[in-house]
User: Fold this.
Amino acid sequence: MCRTRRQCLNEEIFLRPIRLIALLAVISLFGVACSSNASRQGSLVTPTTRERRSTTTTTEATTTTTTIPVTTTTKAPLLGLGQGSSGPAVLALQQRLVALHYDLPEASGTFGAATQQAVYAFQKVNGMARSGRATDDVLARMATAGIPATMVPAAGGTHIEVDVARQVLFYVQGGVVGKVVAVSTGSGSRFCNKGRCDTAVTPGGAFRVRGKVRGWQEGDLGRLYSPSYFNGNIAVHGSLSIPPSPASHGCVRVPMTSADWLFAAMPNGTAVYVLNGPNVPPPFSDEAPTTTTRAPATTTTTPSGSSSTSTSSSSTTTSTTEPATTSTTGIPAPL
Assistant:
């Protein structure tokens, strides 16, 4: 404590700067503390803003091309019996074909080309698909089928019937079909030979055999085996190619296994009826070649009280007695 007023005044003057400095120091310290506290509070109060990066996703339209796979239809192999088959089932098939008068040299139990042609003939006669195989449906039909009927019942005697539509030949004796043969007739296609062109057809009508050549004959349009000519240059002849459809230039092709017996069974004068063929002249309208055959002699015996006449054949020509001309419904008598 000051002793005197003067002393207190002097102490006041002396202490005033010190107090001011101390006050400034305190204020400074307080300011720093407040600033620090405010900073700390700001860090707690102020939310942290994270920058959200805007991402734009661009999706390209993808065009997908779907390729439809090509559908391949594989036909299942036909079942049943066919070329190369053998055994009891084939033997039974052959025996049935023979019983129905389809031409077959023998029943051997082996399915060969001759059996195939006989099956073709059966399928043609019965309006079935021409596969040449004895499938289940063919065997079923065969079990109930009968011998085919003649197409020209009024013709009588021994004659030949060719059905262009069904591609078969009937050898008829006494009004009964003795043999059924698969054939191939005129294809209907246009063809040319030596500057002349025509259409391959087998004309319909009634004819007679007028010329024969035994063995192979070389023609302008190919080889013919033992042809029997009945309409100009059209003949029934053997061939190495007998498809189930029309394929010839106009002739009636028959299998080689049928050619020899047909040649012998069709002497000159035999009536030949071609059904379902076009009513047109034969291609080129050429005449049949001169008859050249070595067929055995043909003997005709007349009734009791009449003379018997026999005609023999030479090495180059033969003459046979022609069957009587018979009119048939819708078909003229053979010429």
In short: The longest helix spans residues 5-45. The chain has five helices and 14 strands. The mean pLDDT is 79. The longest strand covers residues 222-231.
